[in-house]
Structure formats: structure tokens, C-alpha cells
Amino acid sequence: MKGIILAGGNGTRLHPITLGVSKQLLPVYDKPMIYYPLSVLMLAGITDIQIIADPDGLPGFQRLLGDGAALGITLTYAEQDKPRGLADAFIVGAEHIGDDSVALILGDNLFHGPGFGEILRTSARDVDGCVLFGYPVSDPERYGVGEVDASGRLVRLEEKPAVSRSDLAITGLYFYDNDVVDIARRLNPSERGELEITDVNRTYLERGKAECVQLGRGFVWLDTGTHNALNEAGQYVQILFNRQGVRIGCVEEIAWRMGYIDRDTCHRLGLALSKSPYGQYLMEITSNPRYEEAS
């Protein structure tokens, strides 16, 4: 499975702080926002990932992450000259996807929960259709909402319904088989001139090939695209670290735990950042036996 992080857009909900920097490079507590979606794909076992961003933003991501070799993965970059909807990512990234299945994650989404890595890896195996990830919310009218049957198959999708039959919001993480490229190419743009991800998902729903994995009690899903949400996400990450010593979205640690790099390489990555608490954390977990088991 290939991975795509969609990190485009103008970040208008975060103006003026995004007038001079890409939204996905803003800090969420101790690391850039893009570390969080990157960590999700890495936990899913995906090591060939493309970052799609606007022309002004791409150099920043390239400076930050390079070609991914330091993390034992492959990172490439593609330009989206203007926002054309989420489904446009499959057209921009068609060459990257090739004949494989693909995972798309939005660059401003944060996920955390028990056993999440295993859920991701199980869901990524032999995708036949699409696998969406649903999360219960108190305000479903703000989201695309899914209704599922007892087996987890989607039976209905609604986009920001005035009155919803379900509280299950469809999150910004999607797994698709290779048909998604052709489906995206055949879409008609919406009234906003965009290729809507909900239309892609409805195509799979009509084929009877849409599954929804429900992230329930104990999971956290945050969209960090507003000032309040950005602050809340930072506070969540900070509180969890202060209470449990866990750094969510630490891509260097995940690379080590997943076997993409070895312990010594992870330690050296920490040493290069040793003046920061983040770097000191990497050095600590790779030298202290009590961190031997993955947190």
C-alpha cells in the first residue's frame, strides 16, 4: 500500500498565522503538525509516502523531512497548484500510487488510541473497495456522516446533514483499492469546482464495497484546522506526555519500533536534537531499558 498526505490548501481558517507558513508546519505542542499524519501511515506499515502540497509549501516540507531515508522510509513530493478537493489527491498522486492500493490522510488530522497500530495494519491488508474510519461526535451536522450495519458495512453516507440518523463522522483517513484513481478521474466537480471525497466514497458504497472501522471509546480524533482546535490538540499532546511520558506522533520512535531503523540510528537522531526536550526523549528511550517495550 502506498501513502499520501494531503497538505495543501490555504489555511484560511488559521489566518493570519498561515499567511507566511503552511498550516501543516505549525507546531502541535512539540512537533510540526505533519508529524501526526505521517506517524499514522508509518504505524500502518506504509513506507512509500507522497506529500502533496501547494508550490509555496513544498520547500518547507522537503527541508523538514527530506527523502525520508533518516526514518527508513521513502518520501516524495507532488505539487497541487490550487485546492481542487480531496479526491484530486488521487489524480495528482496517480503515478505514485501505480498499481497499488492507497491510504490518504489529511495533513491536519491527529489520531490516538489503544491498539491503533494493529487496527491500521489489519485494515490495510488486502483492501477490496474502501475502508473508512468513523468517530462518534456530538455535532454530526458539521461532518460527512456514515451509517453502518451490524457487520460494519456502510449503508448510508450523508454530507453535513441538517438532521442526522447517525453520530458517526467520517474522519480524514481513508484506505482504497486501486480503482480509486479511475473513480476520481471520472468524478464531476461539485458546485465549488472541487472533486469531493464523499462522491468517491458513495461510488464504493453503491458497489457494496465500503467498510467503516469505528474508532470508539478511548480514541481521540482531532482536526487541527482552527485556532481553538490547534490549541486543544497541543494541550492534549502535552497532557498525555506530562502524565504518561508518551510523545504522540514521534516519527523517529515509531520508525525504530516498527523496525524501519535500528536503535542506534534512532539515538543518533535524538543526539542531533539534543538541545531540545524532544531530542533528549529520543536519547532516553534508546538508552534506558524501561523503554524497551513500545509505549
Radius of gyration: 19 Å
Biggest sheet character: 9 strands, mixed
Number of helices: 11
Query: Could you say which overall geometry the principal axes of the C-alpha atoms support?
Result: globular
Family: Belongs to the glucose-1-phosphate thymidylyltransferase family.
InterPro entries: G1P_thy_trans_s (IPR005907), NTP_transferase_dom (IPR005835), Nucleotide-diphossugar_trans (IPR029044)
GO molecular function, one term: metal ion binding
Cofactor: Mg(2+)
How would you portray this structure in words?
One of its GO terms (biological process) is polysaccharide biosynthetic process. It is an enzyme of class 2 (transferase). Its cofactor is Mg(2+). Catalyzes the formation of dTDP-glucose, from dTTP and glucose 1-phosphate, as well as its pyrophosphorolysis. This protein is α/β, with parallel strands linked by helices and 295 residues long. It has 2 domains: 2-129 and 171-261, Spore Coat Polysaccharide Biosynthesis Protein SpsA, Chain A; 262-294, no CATH class. Helix content is 32%, strand content 22%. The protein has helices at 35-43, 58-65, 88-92, 94-97, 116-124, 180-186, 197-206, 227-244, 251-257, 263-271, 277-285, and strands at 2-6, 27-28, 31-32, 48-53, 74-79, 102-106, 109-112, 130-136, 144-148, 154-159, 168-176, 210-214, 220-223. Strands 1, 4, 5, 6, 8, 9, 10, 11 and 12 form a 9-stranded mixed β-sheet that branches. The chain has a two-stranded antiparallel ribbon with strand order 2-3. It has a two-stranded antiparallel ribbon with strand order 7-13. A hairpin with a 2-residue loop joins β2 and β3 (31-32). α9 (251-257) runs antiparallel to α10 and α10 (263-271) runs antiparallel to α11. The mean pLDDT is 94.
